[in-house]
Amino acid sequence: MKKLIFRKITIDTSIFFVGLLIILSSIVWTIQAVNYLDFITEDGHGFKVYFFYTLFNFPKIIHRILPFVFFISVFYTIIRYEKNNELNIFWTYGISKKKILDQFLVLSLLLMLFQVFLGSYISPKSQLKAREYLKNSNVDFISSLIKKGKFLPISKNITIFVENKNNNNQYENVFLDDSTNQNSKIIISNLGALIEGNKQKFFNFESGKIVDITKNDIKVFEFSEINFLLDNLNSNTIVKPKIQELSTIILLSCLDNIKFLNIKDFKCDSSINKEIARELIKRIYKPIYIPIIALFCCLLLININKKKNKFLIFVLTFLILILSETSLRYSTASESAFGFYLVAPLLIFCITYFIILKILKI
Fold it and tell me: Which segments in the chain show pLDDT lower than 50?
């Protein structure tokens, strides 16, 4: 019977946790996806690139909100058991409050290990995959980038200016700069039309000039009609990986100054060691707050009848969540701050656990 009760506690908490995690992460993902619409409107990426980029960022969202969802899940489960008089049934069958406490702690330890794995491997790997997806993509929606009366970079080496757009969807008085480090090519045209087919994208220019500038020569060509191909354009999106997108092994190697490790598009530098250390702490050590959250929620088991006790425990647990976030920012500010960040959660856990056992007279 006791095994069935413990299984029920685990299942009830897990079902509510997973359901709430999916709902909240989906809401956050939707809001974030709206913020990423500038990949289409400003950078010219297609909907496919936009969708997969936002999708690959989903594990990061789960990693960020998981402790909060676990807090709500444990708190809600205990409150619901109390309202349904299920806690009294547990006590009747000889289940001690410490056994319930230990059950939630075991669940929190398993979740803590999952959080470490999620933050150390899955989340950075998926974020890097999203960055690579952008890097390997082309500019698909060029028309969304072009705005009349403005000089706009539609690619790394191409800048365009159009004075107006007529009723025939033609651009009037077009200036296009296609420059590299070796030479510059400028196209000036009275009329231009953007042709976007399934296989090719190009500008069709009518009545204009091409100015070809090299180091030693300037050539000017007049034309009645030309096509300027726009295939394989690179967008202006930042494609270099950020620290949070790199694997844990790479970050550890940067701190250890391992020179033989080849890290593409990323350079280890001592100036970012604090940022790297903070990222590693977030991935590996910060999940230790999950068992602390479970412990504070289990304070409800001591005296759950008064509403003010429920409110106080909710506030205290929420403050623990805030502490885990704010203290992380200053964890690498100095050696003493680093030591405080390592020791503080362990002290909080031990003191709280000791107080609970003292009150339960164990």
Answer: 40, 44, 236, 259-260
